[in-house]
Amino acid sequence: MTITKVRRCVDCGAPQEQVRRAIDYAESGLDNVRLLNVPVWVCTNGHEELAVPAVTELHAMLAQLIIRKPAPLRGAEIRFLRRQTGLQAKEFAERIGLTPVSLSRFETNARHATRRVDLLIRLAAAALIAGRDGNPFPSDLAPLVERLEAWDVGSHTLRHVEAAAPEREWETAGDIR
């Protein structure tokens, strides 16, 4: 016994029927993602509604694929990874030692990231996503961390963060004379 799924179109109220097809998934913000066998509701007037299942899991998988891709990151991929971390551009830029303007230029393809910055963005995204989800840093990315350390990327930021506290700190406001 075959059950045909039918529902009403939200645009016109006409009956819709579910079909499955390949779609370009531009909603991800990436222009090179094509999903196969996606449920699409089509009405008799030609309106279509996508029913992409497990979007959160899909985006997590896309992020892991982008982090590990062999080619340099493109602007849309950098933006996608940053958004997957859940951080605004300013905070993400600050965390990896970039200015928000520099990050914006990378995300809009106005400027291309160097190999070092590309690697830094990938590793930062991997670490932030893993931390957010309560997972350890992916062990297969450990060699990339070693490569980053060998390039001495971010040493200025690290030195600044690890700077010693001032020798004299005021204990209370009453000490000021």
Give an account of the 3D structure.
By secondary structure, the chain is α+β, with helices and mostly antiparallel strands. The protein has two domains: 41 residues, no CATH class; 107 residues, lambda repressor-like DNA-binding domains (434 Repressor (Amino-terminal Domain)). Helices cover 42% and strands 15% of the residues. It has a four-stranded antiparallel β-sheet with strand order 1-2-3-4, with no helix packed on it. A hairpin with a 4-residue loop joins strand 3 and strand 4. Helix 1 runs antiparallel to helix 5 and helix 3 crosses helix 4. It is elongated. The protein starts with 5 loop residues before the first strand and ends in a 16-residue tail after the last helix. The C terminus is likely disordered.
